[in-house]
Amino acid sequence: MSVPDQHRHRGRAHLQLAVITASDSRTPASDDSGRLIRELLEQAGHTVAHYEILPDSPERIRAAVNENLPRLDGVIITGGTGITQRDSTIEALRPLLNKELEGFGELFRMLSYQEIGSAAFLSRALAGTAYGKLVVALPGSPNACRLAMEKLLLPELGHIAHLLKL
Fold this sequence. Notes:
Elements: H1 3-10, E1 16-22, H2 32-43, E2 47-54, H3 58-68, E3 74-78, H4 89-93, E4 99-100, H5 102-116, E5 126-130, E6 133-138, H6 142-164
Parallel strand pairs: 1-2, 1-3, 3-6
Antiparallel strand pairs: 4-5, 5-6
Helix pairs in contact: 1-6, 2-6, 5-6
């Protein structure tokens, strides 16, 4: 077994996570990205213990993260990572982070570039830790969420859990 596989193997495979959609326009019926993230997590053996759609407001996003992290292993937020005036997920999360995992955003944009070209640099996807738990911000696009989940998050969640002692 390779060293990366050994690290992943040591991690707990069943995390309790929150999925939050930051959007002024999505509803439960139209939240394709939130639904996709929940389905992929559950198919991988994780539990989505909380799901909600919030307005793209830094205060509401920050409050939702602070409410969920004490009782869960992490929070994944989709939406609000672009460059428009209303995109505020990153501004809400950065002050909460103890450590930012810069490589997550770098790798996400590299992989995204391979699919969509130069528009990938417009994404501010982010991951880090707050209060010893995982916090991730993904774009609102279902294709971007699938890419991040399948290529980056799902393969490493067990390893992250091991490192954070979740």
